[in-house]
Structures are given as structure tokens and as C-alpha cells.
Design goal:
Helix content: 40-55%
Mean pLDDT: 76
Largest sheet: 6 strands, mixed
Structural class: alpha/beta
Distance between the termini: 47 Å
Order of helices and strands: HHHHHHHEEHEEHEEHHHEHEHEHH
Low-confidence stretches: 1-7, 80-93, 114-132, 395-405
Strand content: 5-15%
Length: 405
């Protein structure tokens, strides 16, 4: 639309629009508000397309924010039309990601129809909120039940999460004030100071974060959840050393694809190159390929392996058992993340899950953001030494994972 905007005080209307964007999750700092006011002075404010382009250039920072900005702009700057309800936008069905309480305010302020906003009495739709409780509800919402706006908010929260994997001691040494005596450095220092060892040099083992290896199931039964788990892998990979593999009927390495800065571009490229997304599940064959072709290269330096799957398997159970045992021996810690574990009625009875469970150190849920937060705490508190599990003991981990989720 290129029609004229309503004739109102432009500064007051701009401040109100910035408040709407802030409630939708966009950054609207005083500096950006000032920049927007200065930019509007340089254009003809009667042209809607110019105003949209200028405000979008100021308030939109990331590609995923563009759809939210467009929806907010169309609703806020809707032209008066006697043939339809005030605030209604034709051919637009996507609502704004607002907290129910904020939705009530904007519904009264702008005359928005119910189709554009979440129902005020619907407390189960906390897409975006300036309050604490709505964000907590979003953290507990199942990945498979999320709307598009909620998925975008979850991705922002994943990028902001303080993921830190526990460190390990290496064989290399570094200078330290306290520690074992470093005779070589002591003698070198003494040679520079006349031959007398007046100062003793000490050193300690250097520490590095443990690398992560993610093996993610992208079969048909994991369709809705796998996208969020790959977004999790993308967020963790931006600040940790991560190797990522996906599998359905075969294994594919996607580490280089998830290193792209834009998550939407990374997931789109992954979908184009992984041809068996949404197919059947052959966990044993995928792990056999991983152990044969990649384990020697990526499982060094005390790597932690995360297998993300619901355990539904059509392959050879004996092969799965043997490859899980081998993977458990090669990794510092083997963690299985199952999105079905968040259900109180779930029990690991499928043949694939029953075969894998005896070789798992931790069996955790992965159905919502709160479960991934629990995983982050586990990774940050990994023990220095490797702990072995007895066959069947991971079942207790399933109960602990369900309680934590």
C-alpha cells in the first residue's frame, strides 16, 4: 500500500509505534528512536512505503525480525476504511507476538480484531512478554506445539543462553603462581640473571573446554522437534567447539552448514543438502557410519556426545547395541536426549531405546527450553574423571530427566 498516512502528531505516533515493537520483542532504544525521528524528517511522510523502509532500516537488526516488523507496521499504520473494522489487515492471518496483557492494551488502543492478537484470556500463548511469568511459560512449552512466533522467540533465547561446557586438563603446561616446579624455566631464568636461581618458576596443566558432538535424528517422527534442536546446535556452535551430524536412513555431517551466521539460511541449506530428512530411522546404521568414518577424528580430547532421538528405530537392534557400546567406550560422556521423555506417561519400551539405554550415561528430556537449560547445567558440571554406568542404570537417569523437565 502506498496511500497517505493519517495526519497526527508524528513524534507521538512514532513513540507509540516503538512501544509496540518493543512489546513484540524488537529492540527500541532511545538512540534508535532518535535516529528514526531524524530519518523521517528526510522523507515524505505521506508515503507509506517510504515510512516503512525508513523505520525498518532503523528498528530491524536481524532477518527473522522483518516479518514481525511488517505485521506490526501494517496493523499500527492501517488506513481508515469504512468497509472493515479498524485495524484489520486484509489477507494477513499472522498475529503479533504479544503477551496477553499487552495484547489487551493494544486491542483497545488501536482497535485490533481478535484474529490479529492472541486471546486475552488464553494464558497458554506466551509468545513474547516483558514479564517474568510469560517467559517461564514459554520455556515450558513443548517444541512440537509452538507457533511460528514462538519458535522465533525460542531461537533468540537460545542465542542468549550462557552455554559453557566443563573444562578438562590437558598435558600441556602453562605458567602459574602456584603449582609444580618447572625446572627448565627456572634454569633459563637463572641463566639470564647471573646463574643464581633466585626465583622459582612454576606451572600447571592447561585447561580447555571439552568438545561437543551432536548426532541428531531428523526422521519423520522428529520433524517438529528436530528444527529446534538444530537451532540449539547452531546457538551452541557459535561459542563452543561443536561437530554436528544428522541422520534418518543415513548419516550426514552438517557442521560447516551450521556455522553460517544466519540460522534460517543455515537450516535451509541443511534441508537442501540432507536428502533423507523426514524419512525412516536407522540409528544403528548411522552410528556404525559415525564410528567408522568420523569417531577417530572428532572424539579426541575428551569429547561429550549428545544423541538426540526419540528412539524409534527400523534397523538392526543388535547392530545398534554394538555401536552404542563402542560409542560409549570412545566418548568421555554419552548423553541421550529424548523429546518424548517430557511426557509423564512415557516409558522407554521401544526396541531401539531399550537397546541403547544400557550404554547411556545420562538420559534427559529435550522437549522444551527448560529441558535444554537442564542439559546446559549438566554440561557445565561434568566431572573431571570419566564415570562408567552399569547396564540398566540409565533408567534412573530417565526418571531424573523427567523430574528435571
Amino acid at each position: 500500500m502506498t496511500g497517505p498516512l493519517p495526519a497526527v502528531d508524528p513524534l507521538a505516533r512514532l513513540a507509540l509505534f516503538a512501544r509496540l515493537l518493543r512489546d513484540c520483542g524488537l529492540r527500541t532504544t532511545p538512540r534508535r528512536l532518535t535516529d528514526a525521528a531524524l530519518a523521517l524528517e528526510c522523507i515524505d511522510m505521506r508515503l507509506r512505503s517510504d515510512v516503512r523502509a525508513v523505520l525498518g532500516g532503523v528498528f530491524v537488526s536481524r532477518r527473522e525480525e522483518l516479518a514481525v516488523f511488517d505485521a506490526a507496521f501494517d496493523v499500527f499504520f492501517a488506513s481508515p476504511d469504512p468497509r472493515r473494522t479498524a485495524g484489520a489487515i486484509p489477507r494477513r492471518t499472522r498475529g503479533l507476538p504479544l503477551d496477553p496483557r499487552a495484547a489487551a492494551f493494544w486491542k483497545d488502543a488501536l482497535g485490533m480484531p481478535a484474529s490479529q492478537l492472541p486471546r486475552v484470556e488464553d494464558e497458554s500463548t506466551p509468545v513474547q512478554s516483558s514479564g517474568y511469568s510469560a517467559q517461564e511459560l514459554l520455556r515450558r512449552r513443548d517444541f512440537s506445539e509452538m507457533s511460528w512466533e514462538e519458535e522465533q522467540q525460542i531461537r533468540r533465547l537460545l542465542r542468549q543462553a550462557p552455554w559453557r561446557v566443563a573444562q578438562r586438563r590437558t598435558r600441556r603446561l602453562e605458567p602459574a603462581r602456584r603449582g609444580a616446579l618447572n625446572m627448565r624455566r627456572t634454569l633459563r631464568r637463572a641463566a639470564r640473571e647471573g646463574g643464581e636461581p633466585l626465583r622459582l618458576a612454576r606451572s600447571r596443566p592447561r585447561r580447555h573446554r571439552r568438545p561437543l558432538v551432536l548426532i541428531c535424528d531428523v526422521s519423520g517422527s522428529m520433524d517438529r522437534v528436530s528444527r529446534q534442536l538444530l537451532a540449539f546446535a547452531h546457538a551452541v556452535g557459535r561459542r563452543e567447539r561443536v561437530e554436528t551430524f544428522v541422520f534418518s536412513t543415513r548419516l550426514t555431517r552438517v557442521t560447516h552448514l551450521l556455522r553460517r551466521r544466519d540460522i534460517d539460511e543455515a537450516l535451509a541449506q541443511t534441508a537442501r543438502q540432507v536428502h533423507d530428512i523426514g524419512g525412516g530411522t536407522r540409528i544403528g546404521e548411522a552410528l556404525w557410519r559415525f564410528n567408522r568414518d568420523h569417531a577417530r577424528r572428532v572424539l579426541g580430547h575428551g569429547a561429550v556426545v549428545l544423541v538426540l532421538s526419540d528412539g524409534w528405530d527400523r534397523g538392526d537392534v543388535d547392530l545398534l547395541t554394538g555401536e552404542m557400546a563402542r560409542l560409549h567406550r570412545l566418548s568421555h560422556r554419552l548423553i541421550w536426549l529424548n523429546p518424548l521423555l517430557g511426557s509423564a506417561s512415557y516409558s522407554p519400551q521401544t526396541r531401539g531405546m531399550a537397546a541403547a539405554l544400557p550404554h547411556v550415561d545420562d538420559f534427559l528430556a529435550a522437549h522444551n527450553l527448560e529441558a535444554l537449560d537442564e542439559l546446559g547445567r549438566r554440561l557445565a558440571a561434568l566431572p573431571e574423571r570419566r564415570r562408567r554406568v552399569e547396564p540398566g542404570s540409565a533408567v534412573s537417569g530417565a526418571d531424573a530427566g523427567r523430574a528435571g523437565a
